[in-house]
Every structure is written in structure tokens, then in C-alpha cells.
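Pilot study result, target chain (181 residues):
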Amino acid sequence: MAALRITLACCVLALWHAALPREAAAQDNPASKLEAPAVHVIGTTPLPGIGTPLEQVPSNAQSVTSRELRDRMTPGIAEQLGESQSSFFASDPQGNPHQPDLSFRGFSASPLLGTPQGISVFVDGVRANEALGDVVNWDLIPRIAISSINVIPGSNPVFGLNTLGGALSIRTADRPRQAAM
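Predicted structure:
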């Protein structure tokens, strides 16, 4: 009989505790005064086409438009980036202007096999680095087809292996859409 009374008392106590308003418990909590306000995180993607403005990308991303490509008369993309953007350097190690090396903060994208590559190049979201050695054939990317070039610095795992120094995202022009504008 005593065990039944203890069980009944525990059930009544549990029901009474469940019926208490939760606000009363929260007002008595001293830790609620020390809580920080809510933090809203805005996720950005480094690839173009999503519509994230360049000012909201959390790095010093650089961009080259098709107008800037037309205004500068350079032989190729590497020379354009070497002349117009900061932290870039273009060179011709073999004396061939169609196969330049592009260095960005000490990391390179080169058509020479054996050069340690550290920059990933994407054309419309598809990686342009060759599968063997990660070399970049700059002469296979026509300047006239480029709409914009975005430079995203840093080692971001989104861009895959050997993206140690950064990524170049080249977006080609959509001619029918541009003719309508």
C-alpha cells in the first residue's frame, strides 16, 4: 500500500510539473540575460550565376568584364589578368606568347607539364585544367567568347584538388541573350 501511495504521489508531482508554464522557468534562468542575439549567416557560393554580388563574397574576389577584355588589347587571358588585376604576373618561359605562365600569389597555372599547379581554372563551371598534370592550355580558351572572369583567392575545397592559391571562373557569353539586350 505504501508503494502505491509513493507511485501516486510521483504521478501527481509529474503532472503538476508538466502543467507549469514554461515562461516562468525561463524568467528564472539567469543565463538568459547573458545570451547573445540571433546571428544570421548568409551563405555565398563562389561560382557565378547565383546572383551573389561581388561585394558580398567573403574574400577579395576580383572580376574582369567583357568590356575590360575588349578595351585592353592583350594576346590572351593570362596577359589580361597580369596587366589589369592585382597579385597576378604573366610570363613566357618558353618564349611562346600563346603558352604563358600565370602566377597568382606564388601559385601558378601553366601549360608546361611539370610546373607545380596551384590555380584551378573553370570555364562555365567545367574544370579546364587537364587531367594529366593539371596544366592549363590558355590558347584553347577564346577571348572573344568570354563574358566575365572571376578570381576567387584561397584554398577552397569546393573547387577540388590542387586549388591551393585560388580559382579562375571564366563565364562565356550567351550570344542570343546578349543580342537581345
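One observation from the pilot: The longest strand covers residues 146-153. A full batch analysis is planned for the follow-on phase.
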